[in-house]
Model the fold of this input.
Amino acid sequence: MKGMLTKTDGSLRIGLISLVIFGLLLIIPGIVMQLGSSAEQVMVKVKHKFVAAPKKVSAKPAVEPVRRIPIKKEQQIAKTASTADATVKKTALQPNPTVTQKSPQQMTAVAVAKVPRETPKKISVQKKIQSPQTKVQAQKKSEKIVEVTLSEAPPVVVKPVAPQAPAIKLTSLASLSGVTGETTPSVRVDKKEYRRLFKAWQSAGGEKVEGEKPALRVENLRQTFDSFNMKPVALKGTNAFDLQDGTRLPEGLLKNYAATVFEVKNPWQDWGAGLKKLGLKQGSSIEVRYYMYDFIHNAIYARSQQAIVWAKAQGLLAADAQGVEVRGRAYQIKQQGGGRFGVFVPQQILTVSGKQIKVAPSAFAGQPDIEQLQQSGLL
Amino acid sequence: METLSWLFKNFGFFFAAVFLLYIFLAIRSLVQLYDNLRHVTATAVGDQALGFLNPLFQRLRQAHQRSTLSLDPVIDAIWADFDSRISSCQTTLNGYVSSLVLVGFAGTIVGSIGAFREMFKGLADGRAATEAFLASWNNGLSTALYTSLGSASIGAVIITLICSRWMQQRIKRLESQVALTIADILEEESHESQAA
Done:
């Protein structure tokens, strides 16, 4: 060691020693910073992320597996079958909505019963809406859940599905802006009917969805984003920002949302304008997620499962078909005087082989909101 | 590397590079100074401490033997060599500190310009105050504050080391030893010539 640091005449190797000290001065603070950084507690504990099942359809863009961050290992094991990576795709709004978009958008599968903000009564409705969610979340909260920091998240795990689960892409408001010709189909009902439909949709979200979750794609999610009460969040390090208004989200706020999130594949492409408004530099490392409530997620997946079950019962889909993708649209149900919430209506099932199965509204017989939309002529 | 990315992010690319350069140069000068003083203890000066002056001390003996005319120039050369080793390190470090202060000042100015520009732009665009402040932080305010802090901290550390009792004591002792060595050589030669 002494020989390495001194020359033959006994003097020190100044250059080498300087470099060593300089290197230590750079490394040690980095280590101290790593040790000092707390576990990721800002974000809600993410149970899983929607992963779109990869489709072999040539028209569809390739999807990428979404990183899965298991929070509770026990839950993960228990939910191995139930929490299969479900790919939720949101088709980006294109001038031709029937054309498969290049970047599948992520869908907030769950139809969020958005509480109208305009009237006080909407607040009470919102509280009711949240009750099943609270119930579901309370059950989950009772379990010991280890919060996994983003930095501690395990490597990307894609549950092998035949075919491979496609990646989920979140809908990008930025990419959807400027899309023309697409309006949100909606129906306006009176207050009494509104409550009835809302409760029916809300109760659908109260039941836990079992089985493998299919990939999902909502074609007009861009316009109905708000209706599902999705919260777009930009994550920068340990800081979270609400992309809707640019405010910083306090730690723990996102815990009120579901543990299921959608991750945007290309945040700068999809949310460039919003991210720049936050003061972020173009191209800087950022993650954008969509948060939703549990019952909304459950409601959407329940309807998707319903569509698949119907298709199998009709013989349109093989009983052992896997890796299918459910496509649909979001519809808004508006209340006279103000207020609206969104519902998801599956309209097509896409198989791995590329076969498209049209889902008839009769697949959802007995669903009040579907019946209302049919009566209105939207379905 | 975490530290480097933090530096480049908060100081800005240019100022981070300048700071890193100055830090490295300061470390180098300090190591050199330490190398020159490490053989000087509180009570004695080791033989190796003035080893770099041995050729000049030998030259002084030869000059004294031949004649006294070249004694002064050789003695001047000894002191010049000593200064180039010891005093120049101190001067260099002082120079780095002064430069760092100026660089920090420049960083503050540049960062402030960027910060105010973003802030006024944000307010003019009607952005929320939080957005405007965040933008101004990301686009200059952090550079302004961190460069000032960095230059002040590094400068304070270097000045503390230069002016430390450990450093000054040993430098003075080394100077004394050089003077005593010169005196010994001159006296030694005088005794020999008298004896002869």
Remarks:
- Chain B has a mean pLDDT of 86.
- The interface with chain A takes residues 1-4, 6, 23-24, 27-28, 31-32, 34-35, 38, 48, 51, 118, 127-128, 130-131, 134-139 of chain B (CB under 8 Å).
- Chain B is about 85% helix and 0% strand.
